[in-house]
Amino acid sequence: xxxVKAKLQWWVIPSIxxxxxxxxxxxxxxxxxxxxxxxxxxxxxxGEQKNTQQDETLNKLTGIQETxxxxxxxxxxxxxxxxxxxxxxxxxxxxxxxxxxxxDGDDGWYRCD
Length: 113
Prior knowledge:
The protein is mainly alpha-helical. The chain has one domain. The chain is 63% helix and 9% strand. It is built from two helices and three strands, in the order ααβββ. The protein has helices at residues 12-38, 40-83, and strands spanning 87-90, 96-99, 110-111. The chain is rod-shaped and about 145 Å long.
């Protein structure tokens, strides 16, 4: 006796279609993730090159900052020595007055004839 094929339920065909779409979506996601992963070494290399370039720029900027710091310190030392230089002043009667800490201030003057 021959078997009679049973009629499929109404929900079988939509579930097969849904399952096929889900499988294709999973395969597409897998392909995209693999392509992203395959490009990763190139992106890492580009990032390392950029880091190297930034390191070189920072080294240059550090050198410039150190140079300007030295210039600033030299200027400060020059100003300090300028302030401590001797100041002389002659009054109308011919008397000379001196001060060793610059010309500013009223105290510290002495006759230096």
